[in-house]
Amino acid sequence: MPVTIAVANQKGGCGKTTTCMNLAGGLAAAGFKVLVVDADPQGSATEWRNRSEESLLHFDVIAMATSSIHKELPRIIANSTYEVAIIDCPPGTETKGFGTVTRSALLAADFVLIPSRPTPIDFLATAIMIPVLNDVALIKPEQRVYLLLNAKHSNNRLGKAAKDGAIAMFSNQGVEIGILESELHDRTPFAESPAAGQTVVEFAPSSKAAEEILNLTREVIEKCLTAQ
């Protein structure tokens, strides 16, 4: 059965598209047939794909910024050879506007990956998602949710204490939120690779950024794909 992962956070600028596209690149490099669903009306994932005349990405990207993702996407992947679908969600989880798209994406997902910058303010903004995650858990109690620390700065005190802060913030919130061991740092290839229409795995294969994505890929395979 294909696995669907929603990359979601109500806060803009937390690295959803960067995480989504690079994870897709890592999974494709590991041999999985991957579909990225661009559910953000801004179309960042689609623009990333269109950066070159012929896509340099080793996975497919489709646009689906609609509140019926949970109805449309299962039909698409059921009639395909895709093994993994990753949804790049828009900002917001409110019950109107973009929030209806995110809610639909969460309803379609087997797993939810929440990228968050490692600051108290970002954790507070991310925690706004908890009520909608709890609502979805009533419908999909088997769904698993993971927090990914993103855009870390290794050498500051805030970055070093980030994991402890995340555990404290997201424990005992109703829905269980696991903290991934993998972390992504604020590295130049993450900013440069979209302009080339590539993920960091192809753009800078020997970089620390690519190493972090491959670590994340292995953890996602272990937690979300081989655990099925």
Describe this structure in words.
This protein is α/β, with parallel strands linked by helices and 228 residues long. It has one domain (3-225): Rossmann fold. Helices cover 43% and strands 19% of the residues. The chain contains eleven helices and seven strands. A seven-stranded parallel beta sheet has the order 3-2-4-1-5-6-7, sandwiched between helices. Helix 1 (16-29) crosses helix 11 (208-225) and helix 5 (120-127) packs parallel to helix 8. The N and C termini lie close together (9 Å). The relative contact order is 0.19. Mean pLDDT is 88; it is low at 94-98.
Task: Provide the descriptors you would attach to this structure in a database record.
228 residues, alpha/beta, Rossmann fold, seven-stranded parallel beta sheet, 11 helices
What's this entry about, in short?
This is Plasmid segregation oscillating ATPase ParF. With 228 residues, this protein is of the alpha/beta class. The protein has 11 helices and 7 strands.
Distance between the termini: 9 Å
Number of domains: 1
Within the CATH hierarchy, at the fold level, what is the topology? Rossmann fold
Instruction: From the alpha carbons, calculate the radius of gyration and give it in angstroms.
Output: 16 Å
Count of helical stretches: 11
Query: What does the oligomeric state look like here?
Result: single chain
Please bin the fraction of helical residues: 40-55%
CATH architecture: 3-Layer(aba) Sandwich
The overall strand count is 7
* CATH class identity: Alpha Beta
Taking strands numbered 1, 2, ... along the chain, how are they ordered across the largest sheet?
Answer: 3-2-4-1-5-6-7
CATH homologous superfamily designation: P-loop containing nucleotide triphosphate hydrolases
Strand-residue proportion: 15-25%
Structural class comes to: alpha/beta
**Largest sheet geometry:** 7 strands, parallel
Mean pLDDT: 88
Structural shape:
globular
Contiguous uncertain segments of 5+ residues = 94-98
